[in-house]
Specification:
The chain is an alpha/beta fold. It is 34% helix and 17% strand.
């Protein structure tokens, strides 16, 4: 039987068990939307901007473990995906992004809304391809889903010219596909497992460093069992937070330039660093020559290119994190590192995580502590900036709570649309997004999406009137020259103002009135005693999003902080060095 390419596209999505498609129509994709009309079992979600669309697909994929799927038109529709493609690919999120394209005979002729989206995205995706023959369509789509979800997950871009969508051809869709030269290795080498265990037998101060690879592999339960069996303290990257429950006695904290004092000290002083699913990027290493310089470093990662790329390791292991943990569980003896754990607990006691200001007002710590208390079955997304850093410091994650954040690219505007995707994929969970007043405005149009799809997402805006993270760096390292970071600035203000006061102009926009214009519930919190009731009211609001604007201190800072170029052991602890 012959069907059009557009009809085969729909058949392929159903064969791949796609139940949610994030899509925005346009001229070069109209045939695909025509084929999607009225299809049962496939929920087509129409966000309000393509960047919001792909972040929503990203949040759906991270929270469910399924492949997120996008569909947009050519030209600006495709280019509006670029930031989201890079965001997801950096964090190893499985997405398949379909883009409409001008007919094949017009490609290269500067046709209306023609862009070379494959060329644009090749360096920020796992694979990108234009389908140029109708007979290749089925295999290409099957290959896209396989590549996106296997090995180290990532983003695949499939460009579909309009004539390919319209041309008749076979209705067959393959159940499997072979990709020449692509054979992801998931098994671990048992010889390397033995070397690692031998190394631990000689250790006195070992540390597990866990990255996003644990969460991607859904190996949290197994990792917790391994840490317990070995008695080894656990430090995580921001992306690895939640690898084991944060209330577990073996959990130390996050590592890096805004990591906890105890976590940074533990890695600096350890004699074996057993890292799993970590890229060792500059946010966690500090000065590379000083990073874990006393330690033998073991590194497990599914991507061989990640091993010894940034930090040279002593025992490399290529393989899936879950498989490596299972092998270790089977072979590992019980260890006793009680004295080492006691030392780390003392560091935590001496230098606990806290915010700089200790007023009775609304602080990020007070807000997130109430979120920890009220929400037990939840997904929390963040935007990027101080709001992300406070959340990753103070949020408690358990087996029933998950955090989604843009770790590799650091994308402002991620939080709200990612929360919508997570809510669509997890209707039984509370979904909260924690944003700054700057980042929320980058995709705030997705409040309309939340309303029309009746998504009770809770939007927490930490409003300090600044692009807070950059302002903090300007305060600490650039002589308090607040250049282009004040969001209350008006043309009538002094260009060199660096002292917020009661005389500052009113904030634009009024988030309460803006939220209400979308039909959402809106609450402004200015006093600490209002925090709990606001969150409870939001939790009890169904089918409607709630925006809570928390007015926080304008110059609240994130501590600890490792100054640029310094080793992790050189931390500034709220104005005093650690």
């Amino acid at each position: 039987m012959e069907i059009t390419g557009a009809e085969l596209f729909v058949k392929a999505l159903l064969a791949e068990n796609v139940d949610t498609l994030f899509a925005y129509p346009g001229g070069q994709a109209i045939d695909l939307f025509h084929a999607l009309y009225g299809v049962e079992g496939l929920d087509v979600i129409l966000p309000r901007h393509e960047q919001g669309l792909i972040h929503a697909a990203d949040g759906y994929a991270r929270s469910t473990g399924k492949v997120g799927v996008c569909l947009v038109t050519s030209g600006p529709g495709a280019t509006n995906l670029v930031t989201g493609i890079a965001t997801a690919n950096y964090d190893s999120v499985p997405l398949v992004c379909f883009t409409g394209q001008v007919p094949t005979h017009l490609i290269g002729n500067d046709a209306f809304q023609e862009v070379d989206i494959v060329g644009i995205t090749r360096s920020i995706s796992k694979y990108a391809v234009t389908v140029r023959r109708r007979e290749d369509l089925a295999a290409t789509i099957r290959k896209a889903f396989y590549i996106a979800s296997s090995g180290k997950p990532g983003v695949v871009v499939v460009d579909l010219p309009k004539d390919i969508q319209q041309t008749l051809g076979s209705d067959m869709y393959p159940q499997s596909v072979m990709v020449r030269g692509y054979k992801p290795n998931t098994a671990v080498h048992m010889g390397q497992i033995k070397k690692s265990l031998d190394c631990l037998q000689r250790a006195n101060r070992p540390v597990f460093l866990l990255g996003g690879g644990i969460n991607i592999a859904r190996a949290n339960k197994e990792m917790t069992a391994l840490a317990e069996k070995m008695g080894i303290p656990v430090v995580t990257t921001i992306m690895g937070k939640g690898a084991i429950p944060n209330n577990h006695p073996l959990y130390v904290g996050n590592l890096g330039i805004h990591g906890s004092y105890a976590a940074n000290k533990a890695v600096s002083e350890c004699d074996v660093l057993f890292s799993i699913g970590v890229r060792f990027n500059d946010r966690i290493t500090g000065k590379v020559s000083e990073f874990a310089k006393k330690a033998t470093i073991i590194h497990v990662d599914i991507d061989p290119a990640s091993i010894s790329r940034n930090i040279v390791v002593d025992i490399p292991m290529v393989g899936d994190a879950k498989n490596a943990i299972a092998a270790l569980l089977e072979k590992a003896p019980d260890f006793d590192f009680a004295q080492w754990r006691k030392q780390i607990m003392e560091w935590n006691r001496q230098h606990p995580l806290e915010t700089e200001l200790h007023s009775g007002g609304v602080t990020p710590l007070a807000i997130i502590q109430k979120i920890n208390q009220i929400f037990s079955n939840a997904i929390i997304t963040t935007d990027v900036g101080q709001n992300q850093l406070w959340t990753t410091q103070f949020l408690e994650l358990t087996a029933q709570k998950q955090m989604l954040t843009s770790g590799g690219l650091g994308t402002m505007g991620y939080g709200l649309p990612a929360a919508l995707g997570a809510q669509l994929g997890n209707p039984d969970k509370d979904v909260i997004t924690i944003c700054g007043d700057g980042g929320i405005q980058m995709n705030i149009q997705e409040m309309a999406t939340a309303m029309v799809y009746e998504l009770p997402v809770i939007v927490c805006i930490l409003n300090n009137g600044y692009l807070g993270n950059v302002r903090q760096w300007q305060e600490m390292f650039f002589d308090k020259r607040y250049s282009s970071t004040c969001l209350r600035y008006r043309r009538s203000c002094s260009a060199t103002c660096n002292t917020p006061s009661a005389a500052c102009p009113e904030y634009t926009p009024d988030f309460i009135r803006l939220a209400e214009s979308y039909g959402a519930k809106a609450i402004r919190v200015q006093y600490r005693e209002e925090i709990e009731n606001a969150l409870l009211e939001a939790k009890n609001t169904k089918k409607t999003p709630t925006v809570i604007e928390f007015i926080i201190e304008r110059e609240e800072n994130v501590f600890p902080i490792v100054p640029p170029g310094n080793p992790l052991s050189d931390m500034i602890m709220g104005g005093k060095e650690g």
